[in-house]
Here is the input.
Amino acid sequence: MSISSGKKTWSVPVFVLVVLGLVAMALPFMVSSYRTFQLTLVMVYAIALLGLNILTGYNGQISLGHGAFYAMGAYCTAILMDKLGVPYWATVPAAGVVCFVAGFLFGLPALRLEGLYLALATFALGVAMPQLLKYKALEGWTGGVQGIVILKPEAPAFFPAIGLPLNADQWLYFFTLALAALMFVLGWNLLRGRVGRALVAIRDQHIAAEAMGVNNALYKSAAFGVSAMYTGVAGALGAIAVQFVAPDSFSVFLSIMLLVGIVIGGLASISGALYGALFIQFVPNIADELSKAAPWAIFGIVMLAFVYLMPTGVAGAVRLLLARTGKKGENPAASSTEEAL
Amino acid sequence: MIRLLAAVLSLAVAQSVAYAQKKYDPGASDTEIRIGNTNPYSGPASAYGTIGKSIAAYFRMVNEQGGINGRKVNFISYDDGYSPPKTVEMVRKLVEQDQVLFVFQTLGTPSNTAIHKYMNARKVPQLHVATGATKWNDPKSHPWTMGWQPNYQTEGQVYARHILQTKPDAKIGILYQNDDYGKDYVKGLRDGLGDKAKRMIVAEVSYEVSEPTVDSQIVQLQASGANVFFNVTTPKFAAQAIRKAYDIGWKPVQYLNNVSISVGSVLTPAGLEKSAGLITTAYHKDATDQRWADDPAMKQWLAFMKKYYPEGNLADSFNVYGYSVAATVHQVLKQAGNELTRENIMRQAASMKDFRVDTLLPKITITTSKDDYAPIEAVQLQRFNGKQWELFGDVMTGGH
Here is the structure.
């Protein structure tokens, strides 16, 4: 399944990707609007998880506060749309830029912190964010506790004109799908090469990495920035899909769920982001349907099962499964930089 | 013979009329009425979850007694953890997948704000929402949304009227929770005081839900020289505020918001003797109040709890609340008869005339019209005598 191990295996992931792409294109025409909306959220989470995975999975910096960047992205979009009348599609890159800068700046002081201390610092950010959004001086922009309601974008007139009438949910799905594909390709490009190797090297042995000429400080801050950008873009898309932002939407629980997502999906794995997103989107719903009294207990049990049965995440398990069934020529213990897919 | 023929004929006509009147929207049929709901069964506001459970229990009772006009109620309730995005997702599921006739008692101001536009665009009733914000009474621009309980501003106005009547030279100190709920109350009080508000309110301090105590705020209020204390806090903070004020020897006239009037969970921890003299409003009967021990309605409620919701806490007023609001929608559905369309549900909900839910206070009735989407508008003042609440004065409404 590795991409860089030679031309022979190149066709397998491409084939998988093409099938996945076709299924993704067909899905909104096969399921209800509500399911389409849920699938849109899955892609939103997948982008956010990819962002967190760049930081935590690849670079080894634990963040318990990525919900804050998600919120920042969401509020960027909401404020730009509601107060300044910016079209929805233009707010997404703006949210990305704002979050990149915020993430980079937060990453600078965080350089001095490692392991649990960094986890605490980011946790502080995640805890503080909902209250900052309620702050009186910002209320004119953020709407305080009331939040901001935004309008749902309709599909451009172009689609009905060519005989493809998309409803708002379907359009938003494709809009998100296109952006998700773009973000994943960018992420894959970033992580498979020099930058990815440097990030992993810092994670595994930062002194050795430095000795080999990797600028630890720059890479770590940049990883924070890029990670925040991904999460911010996800937040922006999430806000457009949900049509509402409020401080209560971005409690510290969101940050925790994102962390759960990357661990369950598979650390340092791009496809893991998608598995993780499916998990955090659907497992709580299933748990709620199984038991009203203790949905989170059920959730906990499912999570434990995943952690025990798939210690390297769903992506790791899939990799192992593929390696065991057939592909004799492949080395199941591919090095971590090659675990791109 | 002719008489018999006439009888048969008239029966047939009546039958056909009844059949002609049967009209259904999604979620209604000859056998079933599907109602959707979201509640925080998990998360920081999970204390409210018992409301959803008591409503579900109420409909279990209704179904066991034969349903409403022969139809069973299928009450579908999902956990939203008090998170607005989750509410949006779950409500969309209810409307689009479960195909409910309407959504009822969705809980929380932010959660309901998140679905406000969606429900009105879809033209699906968002009925009797569980929040006291003022914006739910807006039939002109949001004709598919309706509140139920008296709104916070109305209550604030009632306190203002009482202050103006009894203590026109009052110096008022306010403690409020820093969110829309707290601000709604303060706005109500200000509106009620009118142009005297500026002179009469001498101190206004707020707290965040995440703060451990409100002790310093109380000291601050005492220092301001206030002789009337308007206490806009949720249960935990209400108990702290009452206790602290007493302990530092501050003896203002205290107005406590209706949110925190539970004797069991607020006044007992604060200290009953320290709570003596508190003034508040009420609109439904308190579960722990001895005054209602022999009240037939509360006895019936007790029997209901024992049979249909035995795990529910009998001291929890939210269970009375859930029962009362479910009884209201029960009446709406009875009135709707065989015309179970979304439009008719709203029409019936907006045409209640002096409807009595017997777990509400004796003089409180529910009246709505197409321009008035506020079912309960009246409250009654009550004072705590050290043992229990004592109603006094007449039923009051907001305004001037």
Summary: Chain A is about 70% helix and 0% strand. Strands of chain A lie at 148-149, 244-245. Residues 8-338 of chain A form a domain with the ABC transporter involved in vitamin B12 uptake, BtuC fold (CATH 1.10.3470).
